[in-house]
Write a structure and sequence with these properties.
This protein is mainly alpha-helical. The chain has helices at about 5-10, 20-30, 35-70, 80-95, 115-125, 135-155, 160-175. The protein starts with a helix and ends with a helix.
């Protein structure tokens, strides 16, 4: 069947192929089934929040990479202060030594601690000041988000008010950056 024919059937409400959403939901249900319902519900709430933070953090990394590449060239990493680079470089070296852990290991910016991302932006403020309202605005939000991010990374449940704060800060960032 050609794609154009499949599209006609789908518009008519006829499912073509496997429903990936149902398959994913069933796999998740099976993986969570052994645990009590309260724990499962908390896990699903935190998973949504983790997904938003994952996207947000990686969006910031991309924004930094794109902005600095555009303004300082492809060798922008070498122009950062040594203190900022050394921690990420040592973490990358350790990750490469731990070869049994598979995943992205070539991007040094991926090894920068979340809290250091705002330091990179303020260090290179001349390239970010036309978009981000102020260094104080940036630092306040990033510090708050780093605390909750670490809370989530250590599998602790947040209160609903913290969910709202995180969503508000990320919404502010998206509005300012133009996402």
């Amino acid at each position: 069947m050609f794609e154009s024919e499949a599209t006609r059937f789908q518009r008519a409400g006829i499912q073509i192929g496997a429903n990936a959403t149902n398959i994913e939901e069933n796999l998740l249900f099976e993986a969570l089934a052994p645990f009590n319902i309260g724990l499962r519900n908390n896990a699903l709430e935190m998973a949504r929040l983790y997904s938003v933070l994952f996207c947000f953090e990686n969006e910031i990394r991309g924004y930094i990479r794109d902005t600095l590449s555009e303004n300082e060239g492809v060798d922008w990493w070498s122009k950062l202060p040594q203190k900022m680079k050394s921690n990420a470089e040592s973490r990358q070296t350790l990750a490469i030594k731990d070869s049994w852990i598979e995943g992205e290991k070539s991007d040094l910016l991926g090894f920068v601690d979340f809290g250091m991302l705002s330091n990179i932006i303020t260090e290179k403020w001349q390239y970010f000041s036309n978009i981000i309202p102020s260094q104080h605005w940036l630092k306040q939000r990033m510090d708050e988000l780093e605390k909750t991010r670490n809370f989530i990374a250590h599998n602790r449940m947040l209160l609903p008010s913290e969910f709202h704060r995180i969503y508000m800060y990320i919404s502010d960032w998206n509005r300012v950056i133009g996402l």
